[in-house]
UniProtKB/TrEMBL annotation:
The keyword Acyltransferase does not apply. Residues 7-189 form the Ketoreductase domain. Keywords: Oxidoreductase. The keyword Transmembrane does not apply. One of its GO terms (biological process) is fatty acid biosynthetic process. It comes from the Bacteria. SUPFAM superfamilies: NAD(P)-binding Rossmann-fold domains. GO terms for molecular function: oxidoreductase activity, acting on the CH-OH group of donors, NAD or NADP as acceptor; quinone binding. Belongs to the short-chain dehydrogenases/reductases (SDR) family. This is SDR family oxidoreductase. InterPro entries: KR_dom, NAD(P)-bd_dom_sf, SDR_fam.
């Protein structure tokens, strides 16, 4: 499909449903991986479950709300791989609560993971991403149309869209691209609650009449990360079965 042979990919939130599918596909396509998330043991178990291949896999505990840990992961990629070609910001937190019940801490926590985390990862990685490289930020349908009882999450995802488009101006002169994917409802641990409470209605409103799978997001991320998308930058690809059409 797409060739990522020899490319170095750094993923945040790599234990998540979508990032795991992305890591597995990237590995199949020949990329070296630096997988980061909160739980190092779970990351290691996942890394070992991936099929043997020539390319290397490293794992590191990184809390994306912690600037030093993010910076250190990028430095690790530099030391071990000599640089980065692909950054995928997958870490995410989706807490259900109405605005009137959001404490300052709730607001800050959601912004810390979903927005600060993207900023920290991009800022640290940008100087070491090589010519021809690609950033894929995982936004969300929520960033385009809002999300019931997830206003802080939706605000972050909308901000990620604007942030990513702004990166284009700084990265294009160096031959680096930046894009977003905006998934709709994808069956992962993150959406278990919403699928259980509101799944039938969501499916009824989705022209394709089903939820998406993590693999169906991973393949679009791989496209954007690859040379097949060499002139695509500042773009957002919706992956939602027609639930929201821009
Ligand atoms: N599943 C969906 O329907 C959907 C839709 C739109 C966007 N997304 C986005 O896709 C991305 C992946 O989500 P997913 O569905 O695979 O969810 P998931 O819950 O399976 O994965 C999220 C991952 O982020 C990690 N994480 C949380 N806080 C972190 C922190 N402080 N530092 C580092 N890692 C942290 C978690 O440990 C987890 O492994 C997220 O950005 C999410 O917002 C998902």
């Amino acid at each position: 499909m797409f060739d990522l042979k020899g490319k170095v990919a750094l993923l945040t939130g790599a234990n998540g449903g979508i990032p795991r599918a992305t890591a597995a596909l990237f590995r199949k396509l020949g990329a070296h991986l630096l997988l980061t998330d909160l739980d190092p043991a779970a990351l290691e178990t996942f890394a070992q479950s991936l099929p043997a291949a020539e390319a290397r896999i490293l794992t590191a505990r990184v809390d994306v709300t912690n600037r030093e840990e993010v910076d250190e992961a990028v430095a690790l990629a530099g030391r071990e791989f000599g640089g980065i070609d692909i950054l995928v910001t997958g870490a995410g937190l989706y807490v259900e609560q109405p605005v009137t019940e959001m404490s300052d801490e709730d607001w800050r926590l959601t912004l810390g993971v979903n927005l600060d985390g993207v900023f920290y990862a991009c800022r640290a990685a940008m100087p070491v991403i090589r010519h021809g490289g690609s950033i894929v930020n995982i936004a969300s349908m929520a960033g385009h149309r809002g999300s019931v009882r997830h206003a802080h999450y939706a605000a972050c995802k909308a901000a990620v869209l604007g942030f990513t488009r702004s990166l284009v101006h700084e990265l294009s002169p160096r031959g680096i691209r930046a894009n977003c994917v905006s998934p709709g409802i994808i069956a992962t641990p993150m959406t278990e609650g919403v699928m259980a409470s509101n799944g039938a209605a969501l499916i009824a409103n989705t022209p394709m009449r089903r939820f998406g799978s993590p693999d169906e997001v991973a393949s679009v991320i791989a496209f954007l990360a690859s040379d097949a998308a060499a002139f695509v930058t500042g773009e957002t690809i919706h992956i939602n079965g027609g639930l929201y059409m821009d």
